[in-house]
Amino acid sequence: MAQATGVRRETSARGYEGHLLEVEDLHVEFRTPYGVVNAVNGISYTLDPRETLAILGESGSGKSVSAQAIMGIIDSPPGFITRGTIRYKGRDLLKLPESERRTIRGREISMIFQDALTALNPVFTVGFQIGEMFRVHRGLGKAESKQKAIELMDHVRIPSARERVNDYPHQFSGGMRQRVMIAMALSLDPDILIADEPTTALDVTVQAQIMELLHVLQAETGMGLILITHDLGVVADVSDRLAVMYAGKIVETGNVYDIYGNPAHPYTEGLMSSIPRIDQKGEELNPIKGAPPNLMRIPTGCPFHPRCPYARQRCVDEVPPLYEVAAERRSACHYWEEVLSPKEPISG
Ligand code: SF4
User: Fold this and answer.
1) Do residues 254 and 330 lie in contact, with contact meaning Cβ atoms separated by under 8 Å?
2) CATH code assigned at 132
3) Of 107, 248, 277, 283, which one has the greatest count of Cβ atoms within 10 A?
4) Within a domain: 99
């Protein structure tokens, strides 16, 4: 990446010792005319250099809002961070003046969004839009910025970058547009890249290509990567750790393969049984019953209890803490041992 952009910062993630990011007890709410939406309800996690953390959950689980809180792009009002800390390289972002946050945003912590077509400006060429990062943030001239844009397009594997640098977003396929977004996000050599459902609008083959590209670029730059998704199938191969969110809380966290192999929370188990698996050919998918809760009226006790096949009275009465299930593995379920216990062997 250093050769591609030529803008590696001396303080970049490579070689940084300690957590790049520490989110602790983060709470976010939206005050609407209809009531308070409790979108994020006390989440904590860390991210290290070269690490990929996947945050998994249905829509409305709070995964995107927590990322927006890190970026400092929650509209306020109606959104408010009511509690918690977000430390980036030891500094609490929530205590920094907006001018300092602006310097960090985009340069040191960058984000790519789901819909590249909406995020890109249709009236400017992709080369101009990538080059703008260098003009605005690095003070490079027009020709130099264009050259950097070509190098970055090349780096994110856009074929014939030199010929395509003057094309407009609508002349690119969905996958190529997402590569343009990745190029823009990486242009300033961020320490942390947050990818919010980066492949949702793409077909499966292109999804895999984009994930592989992010994985390769991360290995080259040493950045920490947060992948936000509702689809574990897409991120399992490229993630180190997984945090599963439900009703604004992390309900299970651990190594991605441990969780994939044997979930310790009924919600994760439900998510797993609702996706097709190659080792369960011919078996019926088993979606989770019911719908996610209304975040203005989160159920008492464990918020998953109205949908949980393991639920009993204790679940209605007592909020489950994040129990330590194994080293580096936690589950917010009173009955995690039962959930983890061996199930009927898969037939066939
Ligand atoms: Fe289900 Fe109870 Fe565990 Fe919640 S605490 S996930 S309701 S068994």
Assistant:
1) yes
2) 3.40.50.300
3) 248
4) yes
CA–CA gap between residue 85 and residue 69 (Å, rounded): 10
- How far does the centroid of ligand 1 lie from the alpha carbon of residue 297, in Å? 18
Domain check: are 67 and 201 in the same one? yes
Residue 106 Cα, ligand 1 centroid: separation in angstroms? 39
pLDDT for 175-187, tens place per residue? 889 889 888 888 8
What is the residue range of 128's domain?
2-239
Ligand 1, atom 4: closest residue by C-alpha: 302
The predicted structure's pLDDT at residue 6: 39
The whole-angstrom separation of Cα 159 and Cα 223 is 25
The answer on 175 and 28 residing in a single domain is yes
Q: Beginning with the edge strand found earlier in the chain, give each strand of the sheet holding 21-32 in spatial order.
A: 35-47, 21-32, 79-88, 91-92
User: Ligand 1: distance of its center to the CA of 266 in Å?
Assistant: 7
Kindly give the distance from the C-alpha atom of residue 27 to the centroid of ligand 1, in angstroms, as a whole number: 22
Residues 262-283 pLDDT 10s: 999 999 999 888 776 666 666 6
